[in-house]
Design a protein that fits this description.
two-stranded antiparallel sheet; 3 domains; Rossmann fold; 9% strand; five-stranded parallel β-sheet; 45% helix; alpha/beta; single chain; 373 residues; 7 strands; 16 helices
């Protein structure tokens, strides 16, 4: 039996994907899960509760430690002690491994599993792909729902004749798209014609036909999707971007996670008082080391109690970034960070403030939320 899972990070994309899958593919029995570090923002827990109601089922928690035996200690504090007080960083992301990836793969075990990932159609990245052969990632928001490993095998030059046969199985002889597909499939991957170009050309002819061909290829492999008699996602051709994600959240009643909503700040530039906007760009722990400096300022000013907790962790001799939080929080430094942020957004938008969604997209792609989106 194939298992279907979807990780909820607390971010906008994974939340919207859960709603999307629940509404559009109700016959797929998806297990929604989250991996709680114990250090998430309050808004994250509120989002998960709203999702529980909309989805009509509880989001399961994959645990990294036995919480029943740790009293009030959180998963993060447990592993921080294990690592001798060494705080995680971009070069030593033990937090992601121990509290997100390990519990996920332990929960799945060896069961053939399809993992639905919320990478949008306006992003150019893969996110986390498990190394376990029994876990296959699918990207429902993109035209190309397949992961890079599947595409590289399916479109390898050695498979050209096989793919042309699959094409004959799904497209009628008189269909004008058959000739176009056949010509593209016949063209080998080379330095002058890379696999990304080939995928783009095939998708531009017809997304559904492309998906059907890949599905037939997967039937010859051990990939979990290939073990299914049918996979309804091969018949979708939508490509959802950030505006679509926010629309899904609003229409469902779940709403946008509060920490994404832009807030105004004031800063003096050349003697004039200017209005800037800031927010948080990611879900995850409130002290995430991937935060930009302006996001630390946002935390300081919107959740001062959490900033103080993050500050306490630095007393052991380690810091969250190259700048210690005790220095970042000084009034003059806060003003300078706001000035720098305001001027940067001005330059990027030719003297107009960036749309807050544009700035949000610019900051994406890092952090543990990229595992589950």
């Amino acid at each position: 039996m194939i298992k279907h899972v979807l990780g909820i990070s607390g971010g906008k994309d994974s939340a919207a994907l859960a709603i999307y899958m629940n509404a559009n593919f109700p016959d797929i029995d998806v297990e929604y899960y989250t991996c709680d570090t114990g250090k998430e923002l309050t808004e994250t827990y509120q989002l998960i509760e709203r999702l529980n109601s909309v989805l009509g089922k509880r989001i399961k928690e994959y645990q990294s430690i036995d919480l029943d035996q740790t009293s009030e200690q959180t998963a993060f504090d447990h592993f921080l002690a294990v690592y001798g007080g060494f705080l995680p960083s971009s070069s030593a992301r033990w937090c992601t491994k121990k509290m997100k990836l390990d519990p996920f793969e332990q929960e799945i075990g060896d069961a053939p599993t399809i993992s639905y990932v919320g990478i949008r159609g306006d992003e150019d990245r893969e996110g986390y792909i498990s190394n376990k052969e029994n876990i296959q990632s699918i990207f429902p928001f993109r035209r190309n729902i397949w992961s890079e490993d599947v595409i590289s095998k399916a479109l390898s030059n050695s498979k050209i004749e096989d793919l042309k046969q699959y094409l004959s199985d799904v497209v009628e002889v008189k269909d004008p798209r058959k000739g176009l597909f056949s010509d593209i499939l016949s063209r080998p991957i080379s330095l002058k014609y890379n696999i990304k170009q080939k995928v783009g050309d095939l998708l531009n002819v017809d997304v559904v036909i492309f998906n059907q061909i890949v599905f037939l290829f997967l039937k010859t492999t051990n990939y979990p999707v290939g073990m299914l008699d049918d996979f309804p996602l091969i018949r979708k051709d939508s490509n959802l971007g950030i505006d679509d994600i926010f629309q899904i959240l609003e229409d469902s009643g779940v709403g946008i996670p509060a920490y994404y909503k832009p807030l105004n700040y004031e800063v003096e530039i050349d003697g004039e008082l200017k209005q800037g906007i800031y927010s948080r760009s990611r879900s995850g722990c409130f002290f995430c080391f991937f935060q930009q400096k302006i996001e630390w300022v946002w935390l300081l000013e919107t959740h001062p109690e959490l900033y103080e907790k993050a500050l306490e962790y630095e007393k052991a001799g380690y810091s969250w970034s190259e700048e210690r939080l005790e220095d970042l929080m000084k009034p003059k430094r806060v003003i300078q960070i706001k000035k720098d942020h305001y001027l940067r957004t001005q330059r990027k938008s030719q003297n107009q403030l960036l749309d807050w969604k544009d700035e949000l997209m610019e900051a994406e792609g890092e952090g543990c939320s990229s595992c589950f989106i």
